[in-house]
Design goal:
heterodimer; A: alpha+beta; Alpha-Beta Plaits; three-stranded antiparallel beta sheet; 5 helices; B: mainly alpha; 2 domains; two-stranded antiparallel ribbon; 14 helices; 7 strands; 4% strand
């Protein structure tokens, strides 16, 4: 069976196209319309897509992942219990935590630990948000809406516990909306490693 | 005319030409090209170069805004009152206020100007405060920043290059572009002894006459061709001296392209010379002032389109920028240049753009001719009107209007060239040569022939006479 070939005719150019001038005029008038609209047109009709960056900023989406913060309890101590979930989940391995026990007279002693060192290398961070998802205590969040402030030294990008605790969220609070059950609260289960069930 | 007057006026004219072309047009063009392209492409364009004011100055500016607004309102009210009173005087013939009309007119002008200036100042202050103390001047500081960068950049010279020719290239490219302005008339002749009087519309005027061009040469336009073709050497030797194959190819391309289009450039203008019967640019301008602009002649309109095409190819700009051709030749003959040497090429190109605008305006758009403006002032008269509205003007005002209008025409042509530059894609090299030798050259020869037939058969004289009566 012979193959059927579909013959497509070569598009013929008209004389106007061949003479350049009308086509050139068409192209220039198109560009000129854009130019006049964007230069002299009313602001509402302008279609300029870029902004004057530092003076004018685009609003980020609500769930934008900015630099991290550590949320606080009511007494200002970190909510973090040093469970290492975030540093384990981190694909860039940029979180370093040293866990420590509370003092024996602290009501939280034996119930939970706290981070003696909590360090995030913001330059290694890829801002994936896995640490936030991994955290069982809502202690680490990326809701600051901020970028890393630029700096000249790599050391400045190693954010320690105090720095992370001092960064507020987008709404200005250092807490989170989720409640915590501190020892002594009625909702606190009152169990720990020492006393058992 | 005394020697001192001649010398002084010549120096003043040279300074004026340099200020207008190199000082004003070229930097603004660098900005305009970027800004215009940005506007076509829905971008904001260059706007970051800024002079940063200290916070105390910003606070002061912020504090000064309210007084400025109050001043604007007060002066504005006074100006409006004066405007109403002056209109009253003009319409009714009686003065409603116990103030002389002359004082009212002065108050209108003075307070009106003050009001507008205060409003502008209020807006500018607001802009500075909103921009956190950065004075950006619409991005006009960018050419300044560019120049600073060019001057302080490393002046790289390829080790095996021809050092002398490498340095001479940019100079040879820049100087002819500026030199072309020597013969360009930017207004009609200035009668120095009667500068503050209203001159008669026609006839000779006694006293010192200063032509408003640097050099009044008999060869006129031929001088421009001669000097402009020197620019080829600049591109060619800089390509040769760079010790770089891309540069060499770019230089060769530039040379062959410019030599080819030089021929067409001259031939497309021959019909214009035939109509104006002169090579002197001031005579051409005067002919168009007395009769009609060249563009209204159909053959000259065709010549204008061909001339403009050839001239853009001559200035090596898009869509004929094959010598630079960054997609295949890196940067062509510009590849090895950096710093102010590159800046000089850049500057030369932009001065050429201005020169092209000026030549097109002179040859086809009446040079300094303003519609309805004669040597004694405005005379708005249309064919169906019995008598025109005559506004007599002093001689220096007429000259100033002519210069401004000429600059305005140049600005329009510059804008048009930048539009072409940002709208059209680049030609292929064989297409470029085909357009020149097989397209424009026969067409321009045909145009000359047709124009000769028209002149000999007397059709042209009839047509010009018809236009004169309108």
């Amino acid at each position: 069976m012979p193959a059927t070939v579909k013959v497509i005719k070569k598009p013929r150019r008209t004389i106007a196209e061949q003479a350049y001038v009308p086509e050139v005029a068409k192209g220039i008038s198109f560009a000129a319309r854009r130019f006049f609209k964007n230069t002299f047109g009313p602001t509402a009709k302008k279609e300029i897509d870029t902004v004057k960056y530092p003076e004018e900023k685009r609003e980020y989406p609500e769930r934008f992942r900015g630099i991290h913060r550590l949320t606080q309890r009511f007494d200002g101590s970190p909510r973090c219990v040093a469970c290492l979930c975030c540093s384990t989940a981190c694909p860039a391995q940029c979180i370093y935590i040293e866990a420590a026990e509370y003092e024996p007279d602290d009501p939280r002693y034996g119930y939970e630990r706290y981070p003696a060192v909590f360090m995030i290398d913001e330059l290694r961070c890829i801002f994936c948000g896995y640490c936030v998802e991994a955290c069982p205590c809502d202690a680490i969040r990326m809701d600051t809406g901020m970028h890393m402030p630029p700096s000249t030294s790599r050391d400045h990008f190693l954010y320690d516990k105090e720095t992370l605790l001092s960064i507020p969220g987008k709404d200005g609070t250092y807490l989170t909306a989720n409640p915590r059950h501190e020892p002594g609260d009625p909702s606190h289960p009152g169990i720990d490693r020492e006393r058992g069930h | 005319m005394t020697t001192e007057v001649l010398l002084l006026s010549s120096i003043l004219k040279i300074v004026f030409v340099l200020v207008v072309t190199v000082g004003a047009f070229a930097p603004v063009l660098i900005w305009a090209e970027r800004r215009q392209s940005a506007m076509i492409q829905d971008r904001l364009g260059p706007s970051r170069a800024a002079i940063v004011l200290p916070p105390s100055a910003v606070a002061f500016i912020d504090k000064a805004r309210l007084p400025m607004w109050r001043g604007f309102a007060l002066t504005g009210i006074v100006a409006i009152v004066a405007l109403v009173a002056v209109t009253w005087v003009a319409v009714r013939g009686t003065n409603p206020l116990p103030i002389p009309t002359a004082t009212l007119t002065k108050a209108l002008i003075g307070f009106g100007a003050a009001s507008v200036l205060l409003r502008i100042g209020y807006g500018v202050h607001g802009m500075i405060v909103r921009n956190q103390g950065k004075v950006m001047v619409l991005g006009l500081l960018h050419p300044l920043a560019d120049a600073l960068k060019f001057i302080f950049k490393e002046d790289f010279v390829p080790p095996k290059s021809d050092k002398f020719l490498f340095a001479a290239g940019p100079i040879i490219a820049l100087i002819p572009a500026i030199a072309a302005f020597a013969v360009i008339p930017f207004a009609s002749t200035l009668h120095l002894d009667h500068w503050n009087q209203v001159l008669p519309r026609t006839g000779e005027v006694a006293g010192t006459i200063i032509p408003m061009q640097v050099a009044s040469l008999d060869v006129g336009i031929l001088f421009i061709f001669a000097v402009a073709s020197t620019g080829i050497i600049g591109a060619a030797i800089s390509g040769y001296a760079s010790d770089n194959k891309f540069s060499l190819l770019g230089g060769i391309r530039a040379a062959s392209q410019m030599v080819s289009y030089e021929v067409v450039l001259g031939l497309t203008l021959v019909p214009a010379f035939m109509v104006y019967r002169s090579l002197r640019l001031e005579d051409m301008a005067m002919w168009q002032h007395e009769h009609s602009w060249g563009i209204f002649n159909p053959l000259l309109a065709l010549g204008f389109i061909m001339f403009f095409t050839a001239a853009i190819a001559e200035t090596k700009r898009v869509p004929f920028d094959l010598p630079e051709g960054e997609s295949e030749l890196v940067g062509g003959y510009l590849t090895e240049y950096s710093g102010m040497k590159f800046g000089m090429f850049f500057m030369g190109e932009f001065v050429e753009v201005v020169a092209l605008g000026a030549i097109a305006a002179i040859l086809f758009f009446g040079a300094w001719d303003v519609p309805f403006l004669y040597r004694d002032g405005f005379d708005f008269r249309l064919p169906f009107m019995a008598s025109g509205i005559v506004v007599p003007l002093a001689h220096w005002i007429v000259i100033a209007i002519q210069v401004l209008f000429f600059l305005l025409k140049i600005v329009v042509f510059i804008w048009f060239q930048l539009m072409i530059r940002w709208s059209l894609p680049r030609f292929r090299y064989d297409q470029l040569m085909k357009l020149c030798w097989k397209g424009l050259l026969p067409l321009s020869l045909l145009n000359i022939l047709l124009m000769g037939v028209f002149i000999l058969s007397g059709v042209l004289d009839k047509y010009v006479g018809l236009l004169d009566r309108l």
